[in-house]
């Protein structure tokens, strides 16, 4: 199914009528005011992202495997809670879900401050970091899923692809800004300053969310989560294969640069995020024009090229080109396959479908850190990006198969 399928199933009754569709300028305002919460949540994620692996590995003295694990705990936590987040959106509404997500992010900041204060006891500091990352994973799950459905509820299902795209812009824009900001904060004010900022930003988000209007909860039959999961399964596998590249870059780019004595590792994350945003801004309507499958195939291919450049890079500048291309390619993976996946379920189950689909992103990120750490231990940092490039190429093959199956189904109905 495609974006057209989404147009036929409105999110809620108030958005169903054609005369209720907001004007384009109003749509943008509504989208921006909603993805603000995603931006604040991912700023909380992005600020420690370029700092934590080095802090755990170099300052606390743990292995590269443990450094990768300290990042991946967040994604494992998100994976565990994503299904519940989707159901929470469908039952209590996206506003309450977002508010709870903001509070979980606040708790993450508190534990990060405690980790900084207990640095003289490495085991305790690491424990606080792991708890912080677990809370952050819950916050990401609730805020990310809730923001998208909240936005769709305010602007109508016709703009689903646009809402998902702008939510991603907020996500990776926050990561692009947050990574170098975190490095600067640590340099100027120490590791504890990162925790205080990570505490303050989601607290601001919570206070803003309290004042925003809610949207009606869509009533109707709720499918069992396993049925929803079965419908989105192949799309989620494609998403997971493409997400490995982002996980490898986010977790190990700083240590990869350090192993070559290169500088400006955080800037590679900025380039990844910047080109991600540029791709979403330039090609956001391509999903409507060409369909989700075609856009996903092209996106995976570009991502694979970028990751291959990272694998073969002989200098910091070449590695930056690879990171930029990987971000450019990865940008439209989530919305292109997501539009196809979410369109497979009735409107009352859209939150559950989005949660089930997103589970595969979380699963990929959760597995990538420790697995890439093992690859680093055996072969070196370069091979991590080769491993990720192979994953993106496998995603091309899978998406081609899904596209052909959809064409056959369309012809027979």
Automatic annotation (TrEMBL):
Domain Major facilitator superfamily (MFS) profile positions: 30-407
InterPro entries reported in the protein's UniProt record: MFS, MFS_dom, MFS_trans_sf, MFS_Transporters, MFS_YhhS-like
Record Gene3D superfamilies: MFS general substrate transporter like domains
Superkingdom of origin organism: Bacteria
Membrane topology per record: Multi-pass membrane protein
HAMAP family: MFS_YhhS
Family: Belongs to the major facilitator superfamily. YhhS family.
Name of the protein in its database record: Uncharacterized MFS-type transporter PQR63_12270
Source species: Herbaspirillum rhizosphaerae
